[in-house]
Amino acid sequence: MSAAPKHEQYDVVVIGAGPAGLAATTATARAGLSTLLLDENAGPGGQVWRAIDATPVKNEALLGADYWSGAEIARAARDSGAEIIHRATVWSLDRNLELGVSVGGGSAFIKAKRVIIATGAQERPFPIPGWTLPGVMTAGAAQTMLKSSGLVPDGPTVRAGQGPLLWLLAAQILRLGGRIDRVLDTTPRANYLAALPHAFAFMTSLYFVKGLAMMREVRAKVKVTTGVTELAAGTNRLESVSYVTAGGRRETLPVELLLLHHGVVPNVNLAMAAGVEHRWNELQLCWTPVLDADGNSSLPGIAIAGDGAGIGGAQAALWRGRIAAERAIKALRPTAKVSDLSPQLKRAERGRAFLDILFKPAKQFRIPQGDTIVCRCEEITAKDVLDSVAIGATGPNQLKAYRRTGMGPCQGRLCGLTVTELMAEARGKSPQEIGYYRLRAPVKPIMLSELASLPKSDEATKAVVRG
To answer: Comparing C-alpha atoms, which of 384, 369, 336, 308 is closest to residue 122?
Structure first.
């Protein structure tokens, strides 16, 4: 592994070492293209295979076969001849395929002939009363601690939300001897009927048997409350979680740890800042990039693979990464032979529509009201946003001037979707019409010293001195 990029230019730069990024890196490097893989984590795997080379959980049965399948993928990328840099922050990407990268306290600009963005997914915001309190975590954060350090909760713990990760994390925690007192399932009951037309495709997919087994495993050990329509974690400290069932009954559970999960959405910040066109996805309720069948974006030379192209799961991400890589190979080596991998991708995506419809989050959990915090960085509430709309704020970018939403360290990752939907509802418009934050470099927080370390020409230095 390199401490900093060895060269100023590469044939292919891949951003993100999850399933898609690892697969793309392996393919382009093996084809003889100079390939650089940049990833912000300490090791390969992304969230799906996090800490695959370093996890202290060595019993393969505890994390499951799907997790350990990542070891071979990571090994293939490492042995491919690609240059791989971890703990690297990619904070800029422009239309000329120049990237700003920070590694080890210093920054540099590098050029690429092709860029494959494989930044994956992030958890959807889950803005309920008390979601910013100490003791409230996302499922993804809890899973990171489990995989990286083998840590599981041992006090009163409640899992709340919906989606496949709800059941996967619960199963993993229980296998490692952790404690879960209750699972509060917020899946709207109407979703089951809506998803029914897609049930056959799901039952014949890769997901069905595994998902059913996980649900049975968890239900055998933990009480599951379904049809939850309201959630609140308190106002000053986390002592309990209150919820309302589909029948209208309100209950309260004592809790020390509340793990929230509302599904995942594409991590779009880098691609948006680069100028890639995005559209509002009504099925997945998020922004997704406009791509062709090969993953090529609206900007020449930039492809997007994996869940950053739209949520599809780890297996689909692998094939998307390979497809994007083969198109890069063909673009740079026109005589190269490439394969048609679309049938494999289609098979990996089978059943996805069922999951998207079944786990479509309810409106009340996406669009908060009153004093519920929307922007965690600036502590802006739903009422603050609506008050700004009432006096003239027309979209997320104008809202920045009113309330500074989206201007904190997360740069909109934890509030962007909520702000868009909240303003869309208030103004009677679609999320597409309301739009998203206008993102600019740097898209990740970096130190001023890192910017100062960038190579400077004599002309630039003289300009500053004269100024």
So the answer is: 308
What is the pTM for the complete model shown?
A: 0.95
Distances (CA, A) of 435 to 94, 400, 401, 431: 21, 13, 16, 6
**Contact by Cβ (8 Å): 320, 339:** no
The Cβ of residue 208 has, within 10 Å, a number of other Cβ atoms equal to 16
Which residues of the chain register pLDDT less than 50?
Answer: 1-2, 467
Listed residue (82, 84, 85) closest to 32, CA to CA = 82
Query: What pLDDT is stored for residue 466 in this prediction?
Result: 55
Residues 6+ apart with CB under 8 A from 66: 210, 314
According to DSSP, the residues that pair with 10 across neighbouring strands are 112
Nearest by Cα to 345 from 279, 295, 278: 295
- Could you tell me the domains of the chain? 9-122+265-335 (3.50.50.60), 125-262 (3.50.50.60), 367-434 (1.10.10.1100)
Residue with tokens 């740079």: 332
pLDDT tens sequence across 330-368: 999 999 998 999 999 999 999 999 999 999 999 999 999
Distance CA 114, CA 188 (A): 43
Torsion, Cα of 429, 430, 433, 435 (10° steps): 120
pLDDT for position 451? 85
What's the token pair of residue 327? 């198109």
> Prior bond to 442 cis, omega within 30?
yes
Q: How far apart are the C-alpha atoms of 467 and 457, rounded to whole Å?
A: 16
How far is the C-alpha of 260 from the C-alpha of 166, rounded, in Å?
8
441 CB burial (10 A radius; 0-12, 13-18, 19+):
middle
Q: How far is residue 224's CA from residue 231's CA, in Å, rounded to a whole number? A: 15
- Give the other-Cβ count within 10 Å of 464's Cβ: 8
What is the per-residue pLDDT for 463? 58
121: exposed, middle or buried (C-beta count within 10 Å: 0-12, 13-18, 19+)?
Answer: buried
Rounded CA gap, 291 and 299, in Å? 10
